[in-house]
Amino acid sequence: MNNDELLAALGLDPARLRVGDLAVRSPIDGAEIARVATDDARGLDSKIARAAAAFAAWRTVPAPRRGELIRLFSETLRRNKAALGRLVTIENGKILQEGLGEVQEMIDICDFAVGLSRQLYGLTIASERPGHRMMETWHPLGPIGVISAFNFPVAVWSWNFAIAIVCGDPVVWKPSEKTPLTALACQALFERAVHEFGGAPDGLSSVAIGGGSLDAALAADRRLPLVSATGSVPMGRAVAQAVAARLGRALLELGGNNAMIIAPSADLDLAVRAILYAVVGTAGQRCTTLRRLIVHEDVRDALRRRLVAAYASIPIGSPLDPGTLVGPLIDARAFEAMAAALARARRDGGTVHGGERVAAARHPDAYYVRPAIVEMPAQTSIVADETFAPILYVLGYRTLDAAIGLQNAVPQGLASSIFTNDLREAETFLSAVGSDCGIANVNIGPSGAEIGGAFGGEKETGGGRESGSDSWKAYMRRATNTINYSRDLPLAQGIVFPAG
Ligand code: UN1
Question: So what's the pLDDT on residue 500?
């Protein structure tokens, strides 16, 4: 299937995708694969207006019926998993297994949301007044703005989208400028589900293509009570401030600088496999990518030798080839950031293994790199930065307290893990004095979370929680209701007020 056939299979018109003002390039070879039309401020405004109009109707549709639309969408995704997964790979560069995995993550969250559509429960609360009942009701919140990043071009949107739709909220989606095609494909697939559903309001879902000015406009727009943003810390900070200025809600999933502690009792065979997947998956461009390895001095040399050997033979190349484990970085800027980080690490006394560009002659406009292992004498400032590339900094430790101290001594707080077979260490790591991250794992890596849990983290990661668990509450408004079924009017707090 060539690219045009792939786009057509996903419901897009290849001819219309040749005439837009934004060039889309595949990181596989740097070639232009489409030109999509961007939205200006007026285009975005009309999409938000349509979403607001859709909200007026959609909030009255019973939640289980709203779930039915997401059920149909998940069926559409199941039918198109291979095609959409391939487009993710072509546009983003992650290996096909991961492109498919990303679509599976969409299917999983849809299934979760369908079940949730019958479980948007509120509490019943004991009233202190006789003849009274208190309860909570969850209502749809309003149209939601979603800003997503190139690295998970479809899954992270779907976490927001599937939940928002069952909660009664239309979504205006601003995808990364680097991955607009997959977003347009999701919209086309959703429109198929809408067609099958029959009777959904127009404007329930829309995609606005463009750069940072659209982020700013979404953040400032009072018609969007919630803006969910995934991406860099500077982007999130700007969005959060603009949303806060109008006292709206922001749900942020920003940077991660994720660590793994390797204790002396760790199963090193398991650890090596987990490290490889967590470092080189998505070419180091996941928010959850493993970036810091904190290894007990007793096992440091043995582990380093095994990792350097494993890295040397890791297949790097086209993400469409089934044997490849590391695809390209997204673009030249990503490569430059990686090279600059490695230069800084060297200046700080680090010893770098790997990290060089490969296949540059064959692909002058694509950026394939050998993942880097960097032995660091200390956790210097470059280690505390999130560089979106496959760089693993290795640090040593002697006591678990020191290891946890290192793990927590960075501005980000997304994902973390420990490899240990010592119950005391594992439980300490998971306790209040352990990892300060939103995700803390034992004997698995920090990446590759399932959708059933709440996803997000603390500190500069932004504090938001998306996906499973009770994350849905962010997409609804809670009303506390007190109902008096007595013939009296007792006041709370025992106040006597004999008026009338
Ligand atoms: C992200 O990188 O923004 O846990 C999301 C993971 C994936 C999601 C990553 N399920 O690695």
Answer: 64
Report the distance separating Cα 98 and Cα 75, nearest Å.
Answer: 20
Burial class (CB in 10 A: 0-12, 13-18, 19+), 247: exposed
Question: Distance between CA atoms of 238 and 244, rounded to whole angstroms?
Answer: 10
Distance CA 38, CA 44 (A): 10
Cβ 164 vs Cβ 210: under 8 Å: no
Q: Which residue minimizes the CA distance to atom 7 of ligand 1?
A: 448
Q: Give phi and psi for 463, each to the nearest 5.
A: 85, -5
110 belongs to the catalytic site: no
The CA distance from 304 to 53, in Å, is: 58
- The pLDDT tens digits for 280-294 are 999 999 999 999 999
Mean pLDDT, rounded, for 393-403: 98
What would the pLDDT profile of 245-259 be if each residue is shown by its tens digit?
999 999 999 999 999
What is the mean predicted confidence (pLDDT) over 2-31?
Answer: 96
> What pLDDT is attached to residue 279?
97
Among all chains, which residue has been given the structure tokens 């502690």? 261
Q: How far apart are CA 357 and CA 354, in angstroms?
A: 9
φ, ψ at 453 (rounded to 5°): -90, 165
Q: Give me the residue label for tokens 């071009």.
A: 153
Q: What is the pLDDT of residue 190?
A: 98
- The CA distance from 227 to 146, in Å, is 6
Whether pLDDT at 97 is above 90: yes
* DSSP bridge pairs for 7: none
Is the full-model pTM beyond 0.90?
yes
Q: Is the Cβ–Cβ distance between 299 and 268 less than 8 Å?
A: yes
Quote the ligand 1 centre to 407 CA distance (angstroms): 19
Verify whether residue 186 is a known catalytic residue: no
Whether pLDDT at 426 is above 80: yes
Pocket of ligand 1 (CB under 6 A): 105, 151-152, 156, 230, 286-288, 447-449
- Assess contact for 280 and 324: CB atoms under 8 A: no
Tokens of 152: 């998970």
Phi, then psi, of 312 in degrees rounded to 5: -65, -30
User: Is pLDDT above 90 for 343?
Assistant: yes
C-alpha dihedral, 436 to 441 to 444 to 446, nearest 10°? -40
